[in-house]
Amino acid sequence: MDVHIPPNAFSKIAQTVTLGGRNETGELQTVLFQRATGARNPKLLFGSPIAGTEETRLPCHPQPSLGNLDLNLSLGAKLGRGSSGIVFEATMAREGTSEELLSSLPPLVVKISYLGIRAGVAHDAYYYDFMQAIQGVSIPRCFGYFDAQLPTGTRLVHWTDDDVLADIDNIRTHPYTDMQYEEPTDAPEDLDFQQFDESRCFVSILVLERLGGFLPIGEPLSDSLLQDIDDLYDDLAHMRVWTSDIRYANILRAPQAPPGLPGRVCPFHKRAHEWRLVDFEHGRETNASLHWHKAFRAGWLRRILNNLPLVFYVNPDSDI
């Protein structure tokens, strides 16, 4: 049984006093993050014959009423950075954290947006919520999306100058276009889409369960591993989500349990997956058929997986 705390069980996250923020004079400050709402990308809608007729998306579990539990986090090592933000390991501080969370949450990571560039993490948060039914199955468990307004001159502890002054030219603020498919012209219009409103002084965080390592490089990949990776993307297709960001860094091993939580049985493949997919900032809800999903992901997965035994990997924006 999955006993993790529901995403809405706590309403805010506070950085610890000792590992929170520093103002312009170097004094420690507590940075308080409040729960926020994610934002979606435009839907990818098709007409016939690409549009599918399968009704396979699982209903989301009813969200509990917004709680009042507090989670006090200390940032640890930087685990990686990408186009939308930086991922840090995080530990719960006993002081300031509700007892219910201390006894229930698994090891965590925090994905922190670049200052004033929150859209990517907001999109990521939306699709984690949209695919709640496969959290702990094909994607990591997500414990909430939060934002905070930083006073002028304040930065989070562990931020470097590169983290704060991110190279805007190297940050993608739009979906990848390398995975070419024709944008539909005969499909229903996405009438309720709204652009995400940025604010330069805000920063957002996404709290996720910590996963394991990357796919092995330089050794043969078993048929069962290859099938498991394809099945993960098949799960996304069943959830009617397309992600054009199919890349090596976005496939991670499921957490070891304990200390992590055990994986749940996949509702589509009737077994527990050994791997997880992450990073859905370029996700799009779609009405495309399962066949379309499989056809378009197949080539990109082959480019990555076939090259790993040759000691290199290929991402969507690679030239080869």
Keywords:
320 residues, alpha+beta, Transferase(Phosphotransferase), domain 1, seven-stranded mixed beta barrel, three-stranded antiparallel beta sheet, 5 helices, 14 strands, 22% strand, globular
Structure, explained:
The chain has helices at residues 99-102, 119-130, 161-164, 223-238, 290-305, and strands at 10-15, 21-22, 28-29, 32-35, 69-81, 85-92, 108-113, 142-149, 155-156, 202-209, 241-243, 251-253, 275-277, 283-285. A hairpin with a 3-residue loop joins strand 5 (69-81) and strand 6 (85-92). The chain has one domain: Transferase(Phosphotransferase), domain 1 (Orthogonal Bundle). The protein is 16% helix and 22% strand. Helix 4 runs antiparallel to helix 5 (290-305). The protein is built from five helices and 14 strands. Residues 14-19 and 167-180 have low confidence and may be disordered. The strands form four sheets. It has a seven-stranded mixed β-barrel with strand order 1-4-8-10-7-6-5. The chain has a three-stranded antiparallel β-sheet with strand order 3-2-9, with no helix packed on it. The chain is globular, with a radius of gyration of 20 Å. By secondary structure, the protein is of the alpha+beta class. Keywords: ATP-binding, Nucleotide-binding. InterPro entries: Protein_kinase_ATP_BS.
